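so the lab meeting is tmrw and i was supposed to have these ready like two days ago... anyway. pasting both below. for each one the top line is the aa sequence and the line under it is the structure tokens. i havent really looked at them closely yet so no promises
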Amino acid sequence: GGFGAVYKATYHGVTVAVKQVKKSSKNRLASRQSFWAELNVARLQHDNVVRVVAASTCSPASQNSLGTIIMEYVGNITLHHVIYGTRDVWRQGEEEEGGCGRKALSMEEAVCYSCDIVTGLAFLHSQGIVHLDLKPANILITEHGACKIGDFGCSQRLEEGLSQSHYVCQQGGTYT
């Protein structure tokens, strides 16, 4: 992401993804906000949302780190890779090519992916979480072909009882 790096690791015998959030010299406030925004989903569990396992602001190994977030390991294939073929190992074929020697998404795959994403978003919204940076690069695909929404660094938690119109703003995500 924009404020850190993600690594594959083992935590209590389980494979996890570890996100090290770095302090940004250019925008300290934004990097801090990104770290805490990632934790908006810390207590949530849903099949279509990447689960946060643990987090810490203690990082003695590096003075340049705001903190560490440990998440379930989903893999490293995103919807962006699938759509644009940047991971040739993901899908290769000679028929129905979508360009660059890769197969186009079938209608069934597109519908399944869409259903997973909508289901995950509906859950997040029911919990008062808005993602604000939903794009193919932030949708991870499991080895079983399920989609999980990840990267909550731009997300916001809406407060109960306030009108949704209070949240209309110019904040947006990133483009890839």
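ok protien two:
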Amino acid sequence: MGSGLRRIVLAGVFVLLVSSLSFGAGFGFSRWAEETGSLAALAPARPPADLNANFNIFWEAWRVIERDYVDRDKLDRQKMIQGAIKGLVESLGDPHSSYVPREQYQRERLEMSARYEGIGAFVEKDQNNFIVIVAPIEGSPAEKAGLRPGDRILRVNGEDIRQLSLDQAVTKIKGPRGTKVTLTIARDGQPQPFDVEIVRSEVRLQTVNTALVDGYGYVRISVFSEVTNEELVGKLQDLLAKNPKGLILDLRNNPGGLLGATVDVTGQFLKEGVVLYEVDGRGNRRTWQVRPGGVATDLPLVVLVNRGSASGSEVLAGALKDHGRAVLIGEETFGKGSVNTLRELSDGSAVYITIAHWLTPKGNEIEGKGLAPDIPFQPPADAPTPGRNPEQDPAVRRAIAYFETGK
């Protein structure tokens, strides 16, 4: 990691459904990531000696195809190599790891710009191979069209995408503003899939919003970017000047972002201690500590979470819960607790690969499990979108009731 700054665009955690993305130095391409990774192409590698015998089987199959396949004009060695690498990565059974062919990867690099356009939603491939909405961005076309966390995308413009990789599916969904895309959605509680037509538009990320609700401070963090901690400190100071009786930290539909920003934000609410542990495949453990000097470490605190709370927001909520600093109210969180990085290959293609898992301060795994709320709360179907109208938000009201009654 080195600097601790983790680019949220290079390592296959969540895909932001936009055609181009640039948000300060830490954003780019179409991916949210949790690990800087090396962008330099890896040096050509020799196969390990103990693989030589087994690898002969690969070349046997290669020769059979080249010698015997009937449609000779369809033999494309480059595609065959790409298919072999793709199969190698897919054999891991890890939805967060993927191979990106050179043409697609280079196209994504060229798509960086000062603005971004698309439907404005974070998506992930779940363990059942579905493309799932993690969270729509506030004010985005996806949110306006009514997409919700947990929605599964079955088809794009009538084409079944369930067998596509995450990158391939996203390529079909994203696009320039003013263009339309029709998504076929499966939603829990709905007996049949349904179509949603979305007009792509420019998408703006807002990271921190605050309000005072019945004497309690409401703090909404929608994503962890390079500027989030600075924004948060300023808005917290303004809020604290109004002498709130407690704070409600809203992490619903927050898909994560920069780990460094997440650690900084945790320090605004927690005086000291471990934020998370990072454990790699060899059992090496890195400890991330609170960065002291927070501005809101003493006020009573409630954290709101839901199925769209993922990755960095689970790290923050898990740290506050494990240290007894806050009570979690809402739904079980998404369960995204892996560290992913990008490795560019010598031909210009790339591999996104999981390199570590996160654990909460008490050693609890986040990946595939999520966080259980201390107080379960399911908002009604007609509840406002998180962050839209906190004064009328039933979850905010439930948090205030906890402050007032202790239960």
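from a quick look at the 2nd one: The longest strand covers residues 350-359. Residues 1-43, 111-115 have pLDDT under 50 and may be disordered. will dig more after coffe
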